[in-house]
Each structure stands twice: as structure tokens, then as C-alpha cells.
Amino acid sequence: MNRVANPNRPCFSRRRLLAGTAGGALALAAPAVLRAQPAPIKIGLLHPVTGFLAFSGQQCREGALMAIEAINAAGGIRSLGGAKLEPVLGDAQSKPEVGAAEVEKMNEAGVAAIIGAYSSAISLATTQSAARYGIPHIVDVGVSDQIVQRGLSNTFRFCPGYGVIAQIAIDNLVALNDAAGKPARTVAIVHEESLFGTGTAQLLQKELPARGFEVVEVAKHANPTRDFTNVVLKLKALAPDIVIPANYYNEYVLLARTMRQQGVRPKAIYSVLGGAASSFKFVKEFPDDAAYIMDCNHWYDPRKAAALELRRKVEARGLFYTYEVFLAHEAVRLLADALERAGSASRERIVEALATSRWDGHFMPYGPTRFVNGQNEGARPVNTQVLNGTIEVIFPAEFASARPVFPMPRV
Amino acid sequence: MLEPSILTASLVHGLANGAVYALVALGLSLVYGVLHIINFAHGALLMAALYAVYFLVDRAGLDPYAAIPILVPGAGAAGYVLHRWVVAKASRGREEAVLLVTLGIALVLENLALALFRSDTRTIETGWAFTMVPLGPALVPAAKLAAAAGALLAVALLWALVRATDLGRAIRAVAKDREAARLVGIDVEHVFALAFAIGTATLGAAACLLLPTYYVSPQVGHGFVLIAFTIVVLGGMGSFWGAFWGGLLIGVVESLGGLFLGESLGQIGIFAIFIATLLFRPTGLFGRAV
User: Fold this and answer.
1) pLDDT tens across A225-270, in order?
2) Measured between beta carbons, which residues in chain A are less than 8 angstroms from residue B263?
3) What would the pLDDT profile of B12-62 be if each residue is shown by its tens digit?
4) Going by C-beta distance under 8 Å and a sequence separation of 6 or more, which residues neighbour residue A246?
5) CB–CB contact A233 B9 (8 Å)
6) So what's the ipTM on this one?
7) Domain that holds residue B41
8) In angstroms, rounded to a whole number, what is the distance separating the alpha carbons of residues A167 and A173?
9) Which residue segments constitute the domains of chain A, with CATH numbers given?
């Protein structure tokens, strides 16, 4: 009698058993393989992704995440056996006290370092909190010089502070005015009310008279402001030759639009850290309002291929390539360089590595990094102007892409 | 500074803002006049209405002014339900409890908005938001003028409703003496809820008029509630014309204050008026002595 194999009955052939056990053994062994991978290094990304600074905060976060992605894709931190970076996201909700509270959470989560926090006021709070736990904190954007003047050994700022920026902005403004035969004499400053705007305005107010300009008005405004009519009416009455705005994105756009609406046309709108003045978003959405606006702000070195490559990638994701994106991106890469040299994810070793950093792999026009009291000494701003619907570099001369148009033509 | 073009622009600008303030304050004043309650949820309800307009414009692609026929009945219905089944039920007719219930509603609404929409400041873009209209020597944004005209129209309609309809008579009767009103056959609870509904419906209209030149965030109501209370106190609690003229006056004070004292300090005038009214004329400009 022949036995007929029952198709429903499980049939264990020797070969199948072998394949099965081998597969099982492989599955059991897999965690061991994973365990052999070095533990990921947690990096706190702390930005105001909600609240009135939401746009800028989200831009920072995108830039930082893109850098982490690229570093991980390229094999992670080699000196740590290819350890991957793991972002720990935090939202400061545009408020300094919330930022400080987020640092506590990040400390609990065991981050090796923190990158943030876009605004000066928030960065001042987060660096202070991070210092309590010795967490290295790279400030990606906050420009107030107080951030690096409190003797905090954990705090490092890659970009320039407003002291340097205001100085260079004034030098370039004088050069611009002299070259055009000194058509401008009076200046009005419009600034936002927090640390960044107030501090920048104070510096300008002190320096400009010494360089032959008369400051006829200093107008402070709240965040958010949804109506600039009164400020602009005052500008209309005073008719300054130059208007200097120092504020965040939304308010900058509204101010520029209200000025045009009310027919206020000075010889130049010359921003110092203008929130929108050198933003591709502003230029694309309101080209007529943005035309001829000059800005002294953070900008990449257009001669470096990596900067343009990142721009292509950012735009491919449907984002605008604004200073928030590239500064946060490069801040992460600065940290990765420090991790690479430290060969350790311990907070003290990272602080040491950052303090002795001589990194020149970045694409900012700064030269190799050199930190004195936490400030990157070579950091410099760039002057830009919106010309023919795009943003051109007008100073420094080494990589200027266009000649400045000053005074701006009448319509 | 005192050039006519600038002063006129600032004045017109203040009057236009004031007309919308008056509309918001009228809703508050009406609820106080009839229900004798101070509606702390007024600002939060305005915030909710602003979000409704925002989503109608942003998601459904509606013009903010075309949203008025949706928002006014919608907000009114929400107000009716809110009073009849939340405020009246929870307070069990005790006026001091009503106060706390409205405060509770405000907290719930604000935190709900915070959870749902985060604390972002949202604005809408309309093609005509920056169109200017020359008005004498001044240039005035068309959206501001439209908001002022809309607010004035809404105030006139509200006045007609209160003076010339049976509902208006019933509302006034309940405001004067609720027991007597009940005796002549008025459904007092229904009228209470209707008065509250009219109060929220004005917010629906105000939200549509405001958003083209303003923004919405979960905390946006705070500023308005403060201004609306000042207006109601200035005009006289529960006084219709008091709220109207008070609104215009506060709008102008705010605008001129901003022009002469700067944006940060400009609002000081509003609160100076508030304190001065309480000190020297606690019944308000149009209020009767109690």
C-alpha cells in the first residue's frame, strides 16, 4: 500500500528543517550584530517651532535634520565606530522659559550636546540651563553678544554676533554712501522689542552718529505686530534717507509692505539682520516689496560647492534656503567634527574638542573656526541686495555677485 | 508729525479699528445688559470664530467676507447651545456661578486651540489686502474701510433688532424685569440664550471683518477682551450707544497714542481712560446711575 502524502499535513524534510533552523539561528544572532553597532549619539535640536517664530524655528530644525541625515548616510562618526547621530527634538514655543524647560527634558533624555535655539532671548536661557549639566550647546543663530559674554564654558557660537555685524554693516553703509556721493544723512531704525532687536538698535544708535549719520527715529514694536500703519506714518513724516529694520520675518514683511503701501520710499532700506531682507521666501512671495532692499546678515560663501549643493537639496524638498537652514546645518557639522576629534560622546570631551576646534570644512565665509570665550572669531556677515528678483551679494568684494544699486530708483 | 496727511491717516485708521472694537464690545454689552453676567468667554469665542474664518479661507478657499453668511448664524447657533445647555445648566441660575462658568469655557477653548492648532500666529493672504484707497490727504487700506463699513452695518442691524422686533422687545423686557417678563408669557430661558447667541453672532461678523488685516492665535482674544471691557465700562455697562461711541473713541486713542508715543507705549491711553472712568464717572458716559 502506497502512502499518499497528505498535502495538509506538515511534512518535515531534512532540508527544510536545516533551512528553518539556520534561519532561526540567524534571527537569534541578529541582535548580537546590532549590539556590536555603537550606541547612537543623542543630539538635542531645540528650536521655536511653534509660536511667532515658528517659521524660522522650523527652518532651523530642517537644516539640522538634513545635516544629521547626511552625516549618518556617510557612515556616522568614524572615530566612534560609525556611531549614528540621533536627533532629540525640542520646541521652545518662542518663549525663553519654555526653552529652558526643554533643556531639562533633553538632559533627562541623555543628549550629548544641544544645538539651538534661533532667537537671542531663547538661546540666552537654554545655554544657561545647559551649563548647569555641562551639556555642550552650539548656538546656531542667536546674535546677542551677551550669549558668549557670561563665561559659560559649554556655550559655542558659530555665527557672528550683532557687535561684529553692526560694525561691518556700518562700515559697508559708509562705503556705499561715500561711493554714491553721500546722498544719505538721516537714518530711522525700526526694531523688535526683544534682546536681538533692542541690542542691535542700541549699537547702531551709538555708532551711526560717529560716522556722520543722524538717527532721527528709533521705533520699537512688539512681536507679533499685525499693523505697522503708525510706525510707517511716522516714517513718512520724518522722511529719513535710510530706514534700518532689525526684526523677525513676519514683521519685516509687513513693515516693507506697509511702507510701499503708504508711499514711503527712502533712498535705501538697509537692514541689519533683517528677518526677511535676504530671504528667498520674501523675494518670491512679494518681489515688488522686496526689490532693492539691502541687508547685512548671515550668508553662505557662494564660491563653495557644498553651499550650492545644499541649496539644491533644500529647494528640492520644497523649502526656502534661508540663513536658518544653512546655519543650523553647519552647526550640526561643527558638532560632528568635534565628536570625530573627541572620539567620545562624553559632554566634557565634546566641550574640549569644540574649544580647540579649527574646522574649515564648512561653507560659510568664516575661515577655520577658532573659539575665544565660545565665540567663533572669524565669523562675518555678508551684505546682500535684492536685484532683478533674486538675492545678490554686494559686499565683501572677494565674492560679490553684483554692484549695489544705491540710492534705490524711484517708481 | 502734525501734517494733515499723517494725522488724517492715523485718525481714519483709529476710527476703522474703533468700529470693529465697538462691534465686539456691543456683543459683550448686550449679554451684560440682558443676563447681568460678565462674559469672560467673549475673547475666547472671538478666537474660535477667527479660527473658523481662517479655515474657511485657507482650506475652502472662501473670501473672508463671503464667510459672513456662514459665520454669523453658525456662531449664533453655537452661542445658543452654549448658553442653554452649558452656561445655564452649570450655573443653575446663580449669577456668580455664571461668571465662573464663562471663565471655564474660555480656559477650555483656549487650551483646546493650543492643543489643536499650536501657538502659531496665522494670517490669511487676500489679493486685495494691500489695496489702498485715497481718502482726502490720507491713504487707507481698503480692507480697513471694508471692516469699518461692515461693523457699522452690523451695529445698525443690531440696533434695529433690539428696537423694532418682537425679539428685541422681549430682550429689553427681560433685561428690565425678568419676573414681569415671565408673567406676560415670555420664555425667559429662551430669550437669555438668544441674547447670548446674538452676542456670539456679532463675534462671528467681527471675525470675518478682522481677519484680512489681523491674525489668529490661541491667545488673540486677550487683547480684545481687555479693550472690549474698557469700552463697556467707558460707555456705561449695558448701554448700546455707550459701547458704540466708546469703541470709536478707544480706537482713535489707541491710534494717536501709537503715533505720538510709539507702538509699545501707545496702548497706555486705553488703560488711562479705563482707570479715569472708574474713578470719576463709574456709570460711564451713557450709563445711568444705579
Assistant:
1) 878 988 999 999 999 999 999 999 989 999 998 999 888 999 999 9
2) 219-222, 225, 230-231
3) 999 999 999 999 999 999 988 888 888 999 999 999 999 999 999 999 999
4) A189, A190, A191, A192, A196, A197, A200, A201, A204, A271, A272, A273, A274
5) yes
6) 0.78
7) 26-220
8) 10
9) 41-160+302-379 (3.40.50.2300), 163-297+383-399 (3.40.50.2300)
* B278 located within any domain: no
Selecting from A224, A236, A262 the residue whose C-beta is nearest the C-beta of B121 gives A224
Q: Which residue of B has its CA nearest to A251?
A: B121
Q: To which residue does cell 492648532 refer?
A: B117
In a domain, B3, yes or no: no
Residue of A91, A228, A229 to mutate, interface with B, max B Cβ within 10 Å: A229
**Residue B36 is assigned to a structural domain of this protein:** yes
Q: Which chain A residues have a beta carbon less than 8 Å from that of B123?
A: 226, 250
Please tell me if residue B267 touches chain A, with a CB cutoff of 8 Å: no
- The domain total for chain B is 1
**Closest by Cα among A398, A381, A405 to A166:** A381
Q: Which residue has the cell 499693523?
A: A227
Mutate to test the interface with B, among A192, A230, A289 (most CBs of B within 10 A): A230
- Residue ranges of alpha helices (H) inside B36-65 are 42-58
A257/B213 Cβ within 8 A: no
Residue B44 in any domain: the answer is yes
